Design the sequence.
């Protein structure tokens, strides 16, 4: 029984690895390097508009 589960886990891991490689290749074909390395979204965009979220509760002084 454990042998079957072990092989199933290896098969799932191999499938996830293959999916990640295929997705990386697809994204690399779809977007150029400048777009992938830019930081137009996220924190920079929030700072640009002045909408900075409050600090996390545990980090407030």
Sequence:
């Amino acid at each position: 029984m454990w042998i079957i589960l072990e092989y199933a886990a290896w098969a799932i891991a191999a499938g996830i690895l293959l999916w990640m490689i295929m997705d990386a290749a697809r994204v690399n074909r779809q977007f150029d390097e400048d777009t992938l390395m830019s930081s137009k979204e996220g924190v920079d965009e929030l700072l640009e508009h002045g909408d900075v979220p409050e600090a996390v509760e545990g980090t407030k002084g």
Remarks:
- DSSP finds three helices and no strands in the chain.
